């Protein structure tokens, strides 16, 4: 049979159809209750273990939330933030932005407890997503159902953390492009920034705003004058060690007060203040401040699910790591 142009076209269409079909099959989605048959107790085990640690050290909850963010923004939510460096390959863990990441011991304890019940079944990437949810709930924040079914990656590269994690001095346009590049929206940006309602920061992450910001010996004009004075008392120039509460007075409580602070020009980082530089993010900040966070809890739950979908490995991609610090 001769291959006429028409036949060629039909064959071409068929090929396109088959390849788009296999694309759909390849890109499986996460699902709530993914482990209900193969490890029914997993969410309970995670919650129980996290509770033990948060009870002893409430401030660890914030660190655990941040860890999921750092995981998802570098190579997708694939547990790569947990991998240890190798002699010839410094991992994300050892990149500058994680300077202050804490809570690896909690993740290891959770993983060990889960492995005991169902060995080789639950990914480290899913464990991070479940831990983040529990950490927020235990801090008084919203609760949501976590879609699971992520698999673990095998690669972690320090340099990629530096490129993919927005720095605290980011302006609104680079924050937007960072979030857009991960498939997140402007709303996700302003909502997820509300995470800074819990936790602490090193002075080094914002002290550029306090001393000689524009080269005239002054503070960042976008920072409330009196707040700058208070922060200078806590953070002397070049102090590398000191940490401060990001939401003074309620830094262990997941509430809407971040938006009250930002609306009063008391956001700690330039990236927090930058939310006032876009009309939409500014409107959201002011709305939450005015309505005592009327929609923040529900919005946060939704945006966390969006963040948890970034670049996930599913199906037969990646692996289920036995220990979170090491590929199998
Ligand atoms: C929008 C861009 C963001 C920037 C520029 C940023 C930057 C930072 C910085 C510089 C710190 C302090 C680190 C230190 O000096 O110790 C921090 C802390 C924190 N961040 Fe973000 N962050 C961003 C978004 C997020 C997101 C999306 C989440 C969670 C979904 C998050 C959760 C946290 C938490 C909970 C802490 C406190 C950690 C602790 O107390 O150990 N951040 N962030
Ligand atoms: C925002 O920051 C980026 C990266 O540092 C820079 O290239 C850009 O010029 C800045 N934009 C504005 C409007 O300041
Ligand atoms: C402030 O910055 C300007 C310009 O970079 C510099 O000339 C000056 O020496 C700095 N002052 C202090 C006190 O560091
Ligand atoms: C917890 C952790 O691994 N932190 C590392 C982050 O990166 C610095 C280097 O920039 C390391 O010294 C820390 O150990």
Describe the structure.
The chain contains 13 helices and 4 strands. The longest helix is centred in the first third of the chain and has 22 residues, at 5-26. α2 packs antiparallel against α4, α2 crosses α5 and α8 packs across α12 (279-290). The chain has 2 domains: 42-165, Orthogonal Bundle (Peroxidase, domain 1); 172-303, Peroxidase, domain 2 (Orthogonal Bundle). The strands form 2 sheets. It has a two-stranded antiparallel ribbon with strand order 1-2. Strands 3-4 form a two-stranded antiparallel sheet. The protein is mostly helical. The structure holds protoporphyrin IX containing FE (HEM) and 2-acetamido-2-deoxy-beta-D-glucopyranose (3 copies).
């Amino acid at each position: 049979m001769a291959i006429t142009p028409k036949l060629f076209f039909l064959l071409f269409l068929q090929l396109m159809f088959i390849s788009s079909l296999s694309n759909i099959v390849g890109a499986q989605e996460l699902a709530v209750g993914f482990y209900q048959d193969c490890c029914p107790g997993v969410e309970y085990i995670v919650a129980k273990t996290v509770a033990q640690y948060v009870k002893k050290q409430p401030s660890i909850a914030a660190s655990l939330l941040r860890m999921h963010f750092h995981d998802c923004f570098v190579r997708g939510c694939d547990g790569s933030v947990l991998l240890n460096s190798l002699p010839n390959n410094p991992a994300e863990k050892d990149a500058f932005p994680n300077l202050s990441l804490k809570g690896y011991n909690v993740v290891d304890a959770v993983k060990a407890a889960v492995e005991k019940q169902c060995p080789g079944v639950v990914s480290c990437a899913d464990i991070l997503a479940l831990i983040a949810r529990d950490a927020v709930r235990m801090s008084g924040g919203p609760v949501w159902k976590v879609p699971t079914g992520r698999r673990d990656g095998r690669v972690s590269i320090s340099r990629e953390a530096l490129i993919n994690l927005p720095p605290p001095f980011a302006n609104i346009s680079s924050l937007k492009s960072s979030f857009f590049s991960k498939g997140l929206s402007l709303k996700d940006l302003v909502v997820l920034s509300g995470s800074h309602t819990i936790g602490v920061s090193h002075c080094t992450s914002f002290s550029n705003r306090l001393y000689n910001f524009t080269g005239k010996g002054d503070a960042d004009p976008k920072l409330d004058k009196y707040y700058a004075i208070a922060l200078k008392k806590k953070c002397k120039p070049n102090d590398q060690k000191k940490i401060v509460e990001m939401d003074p007075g309620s830094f262990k409580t997941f509430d809407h007060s971040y938006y009250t602070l930002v609306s009063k020009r008391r956001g700690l980082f330039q990236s927090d203040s930058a939310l006032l530089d876009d009309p939409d993010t500014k409107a959201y900040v002011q709305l939450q401040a005015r309505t005592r966070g009327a929609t923040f809890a529900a919005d946060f739950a939704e945006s966390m699910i969006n963040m948890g979908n970034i670049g996930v490995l599913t199906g037969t991609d990646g692996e289920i790591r036995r220990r979170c610090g090491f590929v199998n």
